[in-house]
Specification:
422 residues; alpha/beta; Aminopeptidase; Alpha-Beta Plaits; 2 domains; six-stranded mixed β-sheet; 16 strands
Length: 422
């Protein structure tokens, strides 16, 4: 990318800064902080603006049966496209449902209040801020009036609660999208190329009821459950010795995330059920970890005579592993980082899960880049008073537009991808 192109991008975005703030304000002021929220008003606002910006909009509603199986009433995904001719397709993907607003805010969590160059509101960083950066980065690209080739897509989903299964996962499985590169929300000051996964194992423990006055006549399922819990939490000290080689990812975590039991409150518990949740490092073998947890649960249950246990996998989110295929996309980012910021971005991993794993599993080069500080805790993501430094939004938008311009320059055609679309 030339210095002239960069200057045009910066000039356009400077003129559009107030419009970008208005767009982000509109996103934040429309709550999407619960899976049962009616997203209609939010999506109507979004589509109205994207249409005015020149995007072609496609709605993709997930079948009701699939939604209900995941505990959702409805899920609608939006794919918005801008095409500049034959060439590679870059997707910028964001799920716009947020963490619950919660308590402890200084004022209305959906006010989008601006103070001292910062905007406050639920979702202002994760991930509505990222979406605002994506939209205006594309707008700057479209206004450059220089020769570029290819297309950009916005994959906008409302399924963070289902870990992307009803969003990116469903769009890919149904072959509704097939990008050549993918960018998902991250931070302004680092490039994330790896992320932890998550394994959930459920244990259904069965014993035999007996009166509370004669517990020796029963087989206590809750006693077995407490042994499992103690063993699970005992693993934490051992896990502290396991370290990922990827910066930003430390040790795996494990906890009992759900437990049920005690039918009458006046008798030995006949049944209990618990869920063990274990993070997965990008370097770990899922089968090995699953076997380890299964054996641990089974061993502890056998310590209570007469109690039986059924163990099953309740959920699996695979880690994001960048691999060699992502290297080309990473190089585009790092080349532009030197040009725009004067130095490469730190390449790190994140202990958080990401819907990016669906794209990586489909062997599409995928990285995470968005808005906000390197440490999400500093932005209060998921907590009260979530806050975005608006200068981070400016920097991210400008940089992303430069990256897109570099990927979509006229000599960057991807023959296999082009022939597949023609």
């Amino acid at each position: 990318m030339t210095a002239e192109t960069h200057a045009k991008i910066r000039e356009f975005l400077t003129r559009q800064r107030a419009a970008q703030f208005r767009f982000l304000t509109g996103l934040v002021r429309r709550p999407t902080d619960h899976p049962d929220v009616d997203f209609t008003e939010f999506l109507d606002f979004l589509v109205l603006n994207l249409s005015a910006f020149g995007f072609r909009i496609d709605y993709h509603s997930v079948p009701d049966a699939r939604c209900q199986a995941a505990g959702r009433a409805t899920v609608t995904n939006i794919v918005a496209r801008r095409s500049f001719g034959p060439g590679p397709t870059v997707a910028l993907a964001a799920n716009v449902d947020t963490a619950p607003a919660g308590e402890g805010w200084q004022d209305d969590p959906f006010s989008a209040r601006i103070e001292n160059g910062r905007m406050f509101g639920r979702g202002v960083v994760s991930a509505k801020g990222a979406l605002a950066a994506y939209v205006f980065a594309i707008q700057a690209l479209a206004e450059m009036k220089t020769k570029i080739a290819g297309s950009v897509e916005l994959h906008i989903t409302c399924d963070g609660e289902s870990d992307g299964d009803l969003g990116a996962g469903w769009l890919l499985a149904e072959k509704l999208v097939a990008p050549d590169y993918v960018i998902c929300p991250g931070t302004t000051y680092s490039l994330i190329s790896a992320a932890n996964g998550l394994l959930q194992m459920e244990a259904e423990i069965r014993g035999r009821s007996a009166p509370a006055s004669r517990p020796e006549n029963g087989r206590d399922a809750l006693e077995a459950a407490t042994r499992v819990m103690a063993a699970v939490y005992g693993l934490r000290s051992a896990y502290a010795k396991i370290k990922s080689k990827i910066p930003g990812i430390n040790s795996p975590s494990i906890l009992v995330s759900k437990i049920q039991g005690g039918e009458s409150g006046r008798a030995v518990s006949e049944r209990s059920r618990l869920t063990v949740t274990r993070s997965l490092l990008p370097e770990e073998d899922v089968a090995v970890i699953e076997n380890e947890i299964t054996n641990l649960i089974g061993l502890e249950v056998t310590r209570v005579p007469g109690v039986l246990c059924k163990i099953r996998r309740a959920g699996l989110s695979l880690p994001l592993v960048g691999g060699d295929k992502a290297r080309t996309l990473i190089d585009h980012f790092q080349n532009q980082a030197v040009a725009v910021f004067g130095n490469p971005l730190p390449e790190v991993g994140t202990p958080n899960g990401s819907m990016a794993r669906h794209y990586a599993a489909a062997e599409i080069p995928t990285v995470l880049y968005g808005v906000g500080p390197a440490n999400p805790a500093a932005a209060q993501v998921g907590a009260a008073n979530e806050v975005l430094n608006l200068d981070d939004l400016r920097k991210s938008t400008e940089f992303l537009s430069c990256v897109l311009a570099d990927i979509l320059k006229s000599d960057s055609l991807v023959p296999d991808a082009v022939s597949a679309r023609e």
